[in-house]
Structure formats: structure tokens, C-alpha cells
Amino acid sequence: MVDGQRGPNVLVTGTPGTGKTSTCALLASATRLNHINIGELVQGLELHDGWDDQLQCLVINEDLVIDHLEEKMSAGGNVVDYHGCDFFPERWFDVVVVLQTKTAVLYDRLSNRGYMDQKLQNNIECEIFQVLLEEARESYNKDIILALPSDTIEDMSNNVGLLKEWLRTNAPSYLID
Ligand SMILES: Nc1ncnc2c1ncn2[C@@H]1O[C@H](COP(=O)(O)OP(=O)(O)OP(=O)(O)O)[C@@H](O)[C@H]1O
């Protein structure tokens, strides 16, 4: 249920490559929700502490990200896209979606993106061990967590449809007529 003081906020999380950005972009284009891609924000506004050579990614500065987003999230009406979920304030979100992809499908997606060796293996293991689902369960009320398959375009379309249905019930003014 949406916090009565603000608009709805949806978090879409999952292992890299499970389809967070594609799903959020589709949802945002079909509703009045504003898509916040945390990876892009961190890179664009330099909300990070430099490059991690071992993990081959930027080290996010979580405090800077939270400070930057506080006002927007307090107003509501956002769909946030990130491969982590435990550092956001729990009060920000009304629904937490964890996208899940079969190992073979994810392997192909990440290989096509040029991931290799340790980085590829780390991400595949992250998905096999359901790290993001576990992280979500430890960080949010289980009643607002939705674990959704994201293997095919049809899955993506179903997931967006399901979130639109959730909006219809909980925040219909965010639907486009
Ligand atoms: N459900 C799906 N069906 C088919 N292809 C998909 C699906 N989800 C994502 N893809 C494809 O997989 C690739 C990765 O998708 P996307 O960038 O949305 O994932 P992501 O979870 O946001 O990754 P990252 O965390 O690294 O940003 C893209 O080429 C996208 O088109």
C-alpha cells in the first residue's frame, strides 16, 4: 500500500542482466512513473569513491546517492533500478520487484555484453544463489516483495502489466489513460 503522504515508489532489483533497465524503461513509458537508473546517476554525477579494479565497477557512495534522491523519493512517483537494495531507506518503497533469470539465459546475455571470466562467474553465482532475493527479504517487509521471472520478452511484458495493475489499485493517477 502506498504511503498516503506521497506518490508510489517501486524498486526493481536483480542480478546484472536480469532486465531491470529494460523493464523500468517500459514501465516508465507506459505510466507516469519517473525512471531512476542508479548506475547512470552514480556515473553521471560522480556519486562514487572511484573504480574497483577487482570487481571492475565504480564503488558507489551510498550516502551521496541517498542524499541526492531524498527529495524525489519523498515526493514519490519513481521506479528505481539497481542491482542492490539493502542501503536504501526501507520507507522509500511500496513494492520491491526482484527479477530472476535462468542461468543459461543470463549467461548468454552477459557474454553478449562482453562479460568474461571472474565478472561473468560472479554474476552467474549471484543469480544461482538468489543473492538479491535474499537481500530484499532482509531489507523489506516480505509482503511488498515480488520475485518475477525475466527470461523472455513475454515475461517482461507480463511484469509491466502486473505493475500497472498494482498502480491501478494503489495509485491510479499514475496510469496513463
Ligand atoms: N525479459 C527479457 N527478455 C529478453 N531479453 C531481455 C529481458 N530482460 C533483459 N533482456 C535483454 O538483456 C540485456 C540486459 O538487460 P538490461 O540492461 O535491462 O539488464 P539490467 O538488469 O538492467 O542490467 P544491469 O544491472 O547491468 O544494468 C538487454 O540486451 C535486454 O534487451
TrEMBL record:
One of its GO terms (molecular function) is ATP hydrolysis activity. ATP binds at G17, G19, K20, T21, S22, R113. Keywords: ATP-binding, Cytoplasm, Kinase, Nucleotide-binding, Nucleus, Ribosome biogenesis, rRNA processing, Transferase. Residues 112-122 are annotated as: LID. It is found in: Cytoplasm; Nucleus. Its EC number is 2.7.4.3. It is an enzyme of class 2 (transferase). GO terms for biological process: developmental vegetative growth; ribosomal small subunit biogenesis; rRNA processing; unidimensional cell growth. GO terms for cellular component: cytoplasm; nucleus. Residues 37-60 are annotated as: NMPbind. It catalyses: ATP + H2O = ADP + phosphate + H(+); AMP + ATP = 2 ADP. Belongs to the adenylate kinase family. AK6 subfamily. Interacts with small ribosomal subunit protein uS11. Not a structural component of 43S pre-ribosomes, but transiently interacts with them by binding to uS11. Broad-specificity nucleoside monophosphate (NMP) kinase that catalyzes the reversible transfer of the terminal phosphate group between nucleoside triphosphates and monophosphates. Has also ATPase activity. Involved in the late cytoplasmic maturation steps of the 40S ribosomal particles, specifically 18S rRNA maturation. While NMP activity is not required for ribosome maturation, ATPase activity is. Associates transiently with small ribosomal subunit protein uS11. ATP hydrolysis breaks the interaction with uS11. This is Adenylate kinase isoenzyme 6 homolog. It comes from Marchantia polymorpha.
